[in-house]
C-alpha cells in the first residue's frame, strides 16, 4: 500500500497552544514571543502552584500576555494542572474555541523535582509520569483528533522539549525518555492527518534555576565556554514551525551548543 502524499504546510493555521508558560523568563515565554513575532495567535497554558512549588516563583503570565498582545496577536490564557487527565483535551478544546483550528502544539511543561533511585517516592514518580508523559500523550492525541484523515483539512506540527539528565534526577529523566519515544512515534502514526512531530533537547538553559556554581560548571562543558539562552530554543522552534523547517520530521534534535560532547 502506498503511503499518503504529504500535505503542504501553506494552509496550516497560524495558531498555537503552548504548555508550561507561567513565567516571563521561562522557555515557554521565549517561544511565545518568537511565535508572536511570526504572526501566531497563542493559547498559553500554565499552573501557578507548580511555579511556586518547583521553582519558588510566582507566575506572571498575565504580564506576558499583555506584552504579546502589544505585538498584535490574540492571546488566550488557559490555567490547568496537567496531572489531571481531563485537563489536556480540555485545553485543546478551549484553545480551538478561542482561536480556531490549531496549527501547532508546543509542550514546554514539566514536573522536575530532584531525587535519586533510593529516595524517589512513588507519589513523586507518579506525578512526573502523569505530567511529563501522560499529559503529553493526551495533548498530542487531542491535537491530532482535530484533523480528519483522508481530507484536505490542514495538519500541523507538534514539538516537545526534553532532557537527557537522569542521574540524581531519576523521575524527571526517566519520564523525559518516555516522552521522546511517544512524540517521535507521532510522525509515523499521524502522517495521514498531516501531523509532524519533533523533540528538542536544548541542554542546560538558565531560566532562573542556576546559581553561579552551576552556571560556570555548565559553561565549562560547552565548547566556547558559554551557555545558550531561552532565545536559542525559541529560534529553533520558530524554524521547525515554518515552511522552511517542515521537512524535518520525527527527529530528536540536540540544540545544546555541543554541551558535554567529547572531542574527536
TrEMBL record:
UniProt xrefs under Pfam families: adh_short_C2 (PF13561)
Superkingdom of source: Bacteria
Keywords in alphabetical order: Oxidoreductase
UniProt cross-references to InterPro entries, sorted A to Z: NAD(P)-bd_dom_sf, SDR_fam
One MF term in the entry's GO annotations: oxidoreductase activity, acting on CH-OH group of donors
Assigned protein family: Belongs to the short-chain dehydrogenases/reductases (SDR) family.
Name of the molecule in the record: Short-chain dehydrogenase
Organism of derivation: Brachybacterium vulturis
